[in-house]
Amino acid sequence: MKSLISINDFNKEEMLQVLDLASAYEANPNQPLFRDKVIACIFFEPSTRTRLSFETAANRLGARVIGFSSLSSTSVTKGESLKDTLKMVSNYADMIVIRHSLDGAARFASEIAGCPVINAGDGANQHPTQTLLDMYSIRKTQGTLDNLSITMVGDLKYGRTVHSLLQAMSHFNPRFTFISCPELGIPQEYKDFLDERGIRYEEKQVLEGGFEQADILYMTRVQQERFQDPMEYERVKDLLSLNASMLNGTKPNLRILHPLPRVKEIAIDVDERPEAYYFDQARNGVYTRMGIITYLMNQ
Amino acid sequence: MENEETMEEKKKLKVSAIRNGTVIDRIPANELFHVIEILGLTNGDFQMTFGTNLESKVLGKKAIIKISDKFFEEDDVNRIALVAPDAKLNIIRDYAVVEKRQVSIPSEIHGLARCLNPRCVTNHEPVETRFTTRMSPNGLYLRCHYCEKETSGKNLQIISKNKS
To answer: Which of A79, A100, A103, A170 could be cross-linked to A123 through a Cys-Cys bond (beta carbons 3.0 to 4.6 Å apart)?
Structure first.
């Protein structure tokens, strides 16, 4: 029995296997392989994209879906512990998809449940299915995962998708450029991680074009609540915003990814550019999650 | 180093010897009570003496603990390496040092330290903390098994256990 809690739970071969399954599902999306299975989607905090994408993936695979999408309809409001809720749910379901506001809640869940658990986001920690769908989008648009130049922009300190993608892509000899303000810069532990593996990276503080060599531009949202001073947020937000004019002179294969929701870090004028891929990226989530469910069900 | 050793030996003679048991030397003076806590020495009926703020060339100020009729498992004693990485153990039998041991930082630590991430599940649900350790040029880091955040060994918070 295997769970997917952190992107580090999958080795390179397992990641590629999931991506291959996702490609097959994109070609033929309706594959009712798991008609006899029940998948519990338990979302202790709100989510639109991830929950709907998981439920669509489960339905396309023929599984039945149970669960909840807010705390108010659960016994947690009566004081039930996370442990008891999970014990109960794992009696009903063949697989659990969990989102929770606490960091580490998904790992805890996988140790309690008697069935595979998929982490659909645990606080600020991990969101491994987003990482696999990012990888799927990268491979689909670039034809490969190897030797790519990846520029990451925005909240690189707290952005869980940034950290997980960096770890996952480390298997494929990437070259990173990190663009962020000092308050939201990439944490030292991730620089140590890259140094240990001999992966090249550079850091910049202002987004002002200069992506001539980039294959992937990975944008993230700068959240206002990270700043004590609202004026500082306003200043930083503008320094880390992308507009269409910055894309002149870039490589034709450059694609812009964003885990969404987007606020103002990508100007509307970028949406019509051929490099804009963030809405297609969201669609890839269903195929990738079908691949993940299949891979774990078959372990 | 050799001079330090010689001096240490002389110092030991000034303190009353134990017949059987363990002497833990080279504890940073400010970590003495953490070491006592980690080893669960706050409970138990064995005789224990300790000295602190003793001069040490290596540590500046050091502490020393002597525990009669108490011997430790390697895994248990290695836990003190988190706060006293230079600690040395002398195993005493019939007034003679029969074994010397150096502590080493364990690769995994269970239930000893608190995760400093306030949003970590271990600070909200009844679950034992687990960390893996990593040495970097900046010192020791503990990575939480649950929230995956790293805590510097310098900021370590020991969970009170009172194990006998």
So the answer is: A103
Q: In terms of CATH architecture, what is A128-282?
A: 3-Layer(aba) Sandwich (3.40)
Confidence band, pLDDT 50/70/90 cuts, at residue A183: confident
CA B137 to chain CA mean position, Å: 21
B88 and B22 co-located in one domain: yes
Q: Averaged over A196-217, what is the pLDDT?
A: 92
Q: Among candidates A166, A161, A68, which has minimal Cα distance to A76?
A: A68
pLDDT band at B163 (very low <50, low <70, confident <90, very high): very low
B11 inside domain: no
pTM here is: 0.86
Residue B160 has pLDDT above 80, yes or no: no
In this structure, CATH architecture of domain A7-127+285-297: 3-Layer(aba) Sandwich (3.40)
Total residues found in chain B within this entry: 164
- Per this entry, what is the length of chain A? 299
The pLDDT of residue A98 is above 90: yes
Per-residue pLDDT at B164: 36
Residue located via tokens 């969970």:
B159
ipTM of model: 0.87
pLDDT of residue B8 exceeding 70, the answer is no
Residue A211, pLDDT score: 87
Question: Alpha carbon of B39 to those of A110, A245, B80, B141, B162: distances in Å?
Answer: 31, 63, 7, 21, 9
Q: Which of A6, A8, A71, A103 to mutate to test the interface with B (most CBs of B within 10 A)?
A: A103
A100 is catalytic: no
Decide if pLDDT at B54 tops 60. yes
AA identity, residue B18: I
Residue B25 lies in domain? 16-102
Residue among A12, A49, A200, A204 flagged as catalytic: A49
The residue of B114, B146, B150 whose CB has the most chain A CBs within 10 angstroms, and thus the best one to mutate to test that interface, is B146
Judge whether residue A273 has pLDDT over 60. yes
Q: Token pair of A180, please? A: 């962020």
Non-local CB neighbours of A165 within 8 Å, separated by 6+ positions: A131, A134, A135, A152, A218
Q: Considering only CA atoms, which of B82, B77, B18, B74 is closest in space to residue B50?
A: B18
Put simply, the answer to whether A104 touches B138 (Cβ < 8 Å) is no
